[in-house]
């Protein structure tokens, strides 16, 4: 269970952004909709442990994440939250497998090549594990981003605007991958977007004004 309770935030005394309470059951798949300036990025940062809200609490399972010391929060985030950005954030000098091992290491988990093969195989790119980012197509890089997000079997998987720059066919392909991977890894999925093309794929929607 993931819960957002009585959360609001203001930047340097500016107008306060308030968020309605949100209860998310394990394995749920949610669409987070919000126009530019609605507070979507702020809420994403709060949910992922990057930004401590001015008020309120965020719980993932039994853990109130903002009660953790900074180092423990970093480790908790590495193990329990996977983030997929619109553009891949990979270290160019490392192979795909090495990038995934680094994600395991940051979370203080043992390197697990069997898990790496399993995840890359489920995404159809196991044959690229020894390739470098500049040797992959954009579609393959996007799959690597998904692999890195799910490699540590996170409880929460968040995709930030994964389809907004894609045409209809590729947008639906990426969305299907996200839905499949959240199911395979038993992760709760939140897709944050202003792209209303993906709305029909979700029964659960949290919308910002």
Percent helix, as a range, is 25-40%
Largest sheet: 5 strands, antiparallel
What is the string of helix and strand elements? EEEEHEEHEHHHEHEE
Kindly provide the name of the CATH class: Alpha Beta
User: Quick check: average pLDDT?
Assistant: 90
* Oligomeric category: single chain
- Low-confidence region ranges: none
CATH topology: Rossmann fold
Secondary-structure topology with pairs:
Layout (H helix, E strand, L loop, with lengths): L1 E8 L7 E2 L3 E3 L4 E5 L6 H8 L7 E6 L2 E2 L5 H11 E4 L11 H11 L6 H10 L15 H13 L5 E5 L7 H17 L3 E6 L10 E4 L2
Notes on the structure:
- By secondary structure, the chain is an alpha/beta fold.
- The protein has a single domain (2-207), classed as P-loop containing nucleotide triphosphate hydrolases (Rossmann fold, 3-Layer(aba) Sandwich).
- The protein contains six helices and ten strands; from the N terminus they run E-E-E-E-H-E-E-H-E-H-H-H-E-H-E-E.
- Helix 5 (138-150) packs parallel to helix 6 (168-184).
- The longest helix is centred in the last third of the chain and has 17 residues, at 168-184.
- It is globular and about 50 Å long.
- It starts with a strand and ends with a strand.
- 35% of the residues are buried.
Main attributes?
single chain; about 210 residues; alpha/beta; Rossmann fold; five-stranded parallel beta sheet; 6 helices; 10 strands; globular
